[in-house]
Write a structure and sequence with these properties.
mainly alpha; 429 residues; 14 helices; two-stranded antiparallel sheet; elongated; 2 strands; 2% strand
């Protein structure tokens, strides 16, 4: 779903571009002018979380050259910059460390599901007597080659998403709803083509029964081809789940500053109230405008011009983080920390089940030589349509239908796909 995030990032960058047009370039404060105009409000920088400062134009110097005393003057920044984006985003009532610990349920759930799939293919579908595959070793040994080839296939499929998105959207210049949908469909077509190519590369085929020369092979779970397909799907889905978990941690890190700012602000508010209660029975709130000269001194920080570069670098990093957060919220509809860990784990398991089901369906159509080409083509077309619909739903309708509804619906579709693949292989008989 990286091409979806790229499209959302492009839209978010346009929003930020329009937003920053209302701010002027960062300029120094002239102490002489401020003394001549005592009622003039002090210069304020942009909110460090909610509205990151734009990068100043190179033609606009940070220090006015016509003022010889300017290099010795400080750049006054109001400490009210600590008003961060958490004031406009409803973050969960948890610390960042607690969010990370709860997200650990996602890789744990994915690993346990992977172990269950391994045990299923090793011990289930034992060969019976007088059957075409009665001489197969049982419990079935793992197929490491198929697992690695499947993992490599997903890596190639993922690497193709960015070029496909760039080609369809003309290098990002055509970022619209239709381009995102078209990029999603093209990406699905490439992915399913590579899935079929991996099966061809593995040489998956049904094995003959040497005891009956007239016997026509058909898909059966006791065939070695079924285990090749299963392990190939395991490699594909495992790498996908591992990458998604790693990406989830990276995306949660975008909200770390917001959690830290909120926790620090709450601690400051508690300390302020505790100190105020020692001298006065009244509680002075943080939002009180008449806080006096001491509050003004605490809220102001004088920075030398040599510190401007580091400030601008920090603002640039925060601007990038803000853009990435907005891109994620355009996709999911809610801030990522607000999504329960159970739903995130459900999404990973949903992806594993869907990958297994699609691989079983595609492989059953590929190895069934006795079936007509029309039937095999219809199965491939159904896979493309189903996968494209799911991708478009997650790309465009997720904020409207909600993350919970989409997750449960996708899980039901994935389970149906999985059992359909098992049925085509005769594993439900």
């Amino acid at each position: 779903m990286s091409f979806v995030v790229k499209a959302a990032a492009a839209m978010a960058s346009r929003i930020n571009a329009r937003r920053t047009e209302s701010y002027g370039p960062l300029s120094p404060v002239n102490e002489e002018d401020s003394t001549n105009a005592p009622n003039a409000p002090p210069a304020r920088s942009h909110s460090r979380g909610k509205h990151p400062a734009p990068v100043p134009d190179e033609r606009t110097p940070l220090i006015a050259p016509e003022d010889p005393a300017a290099p010795h003057q400080g750049l006054v920044l109001d400490a009210d910059d600590d008003v961060s984006e958490y004031e406009s985003i409803m973050l969960p009532d948890m610390t960042y460390a607690q969010v990370i610990r709860s997200f650990a349920f996602v890789p744990l759930g994915s690993f346990l599901f992977f172990v269950g799939l391994v045990l299923l293919i090793v011990f289930a579908w034992a060969p019976g007597r007088d059957t075409p595959h009665s001489n197969a070793p049982y419990p079935y040994p793992p197929h490491g080659r198929a697992f690695l080839v499947g993992a490599a296939g997903w890596v190639v499929a993922y690497s193709c998403r960015t070029p496909v998105y760039a080609i369809v959207t003309l290098g990002g210049r055509w970022a619209s709803l239709s381009s995102v949908i078209l990029a999603a469909v093209c990406s699905v077509a490439v992915q399913e083509g590579l899935r079929l190519g991996v099966l061809v590369l593995l040489g998956v085929r049904l094995h003959m029964w040497h005891g009956h020369l007239q016997w026509t092979p058909y898909p059966t779970p006791q065939d070695e081809a079924f285990r090749d397909v299963w392990w190939m799907a395991l490699g594909w889905s495992t790498v996908e789940a591992a990458f998604s978990v790693f990406q989830g941690y990276e995306q949660l890190a975008l909200y770390r500053d917001l959690f830290d700012a909120r926790d620090q602000d709450e601690e400051t508010w508690r300390n302020t109230n505790a100190n105020a209660l020692q001298f006065d029975s009244r509680v002075v709130h943080r939002s009180n405008a008449s806080s006096g000269m001491e509050d003004d001194v605490k809220r102001a920080a004088i920075l030398l011009p040599s510190d401007v570069a580091s400030i601008m670098d920090e603002d640039l990093v925060q601007s990038i983080q803000l853009r990435d957060r907005e891109a994620l919220e355009l996709v999911f509809g809610v801030p990522l920390p607000n999504i329960p860990a159970f739903i995130s784990c459900l999404q990973r398991i949903d992806g594993q089940i869907l990958s297994m089901g699609l691989t079983l369906i595609v492989s059953a159509a590929y190895v069934s030589e006795q079936r007509t080409r029309l039937f095999r083509g219809a199965i491939m077309a159904a896979v493309l349509v189903l996968h494209s619909i799911l991708t478009v739903i997650w790309a465009e309708t997720l904020p409207r239908i909600g993350i919970h509804t989409a997750s449960y619906t996708s899980l039901l579709v994935a389970i149906g796909t999985f059992f359909a693949g098992l049925a085509l292989w005769g594993a439900l008989e």
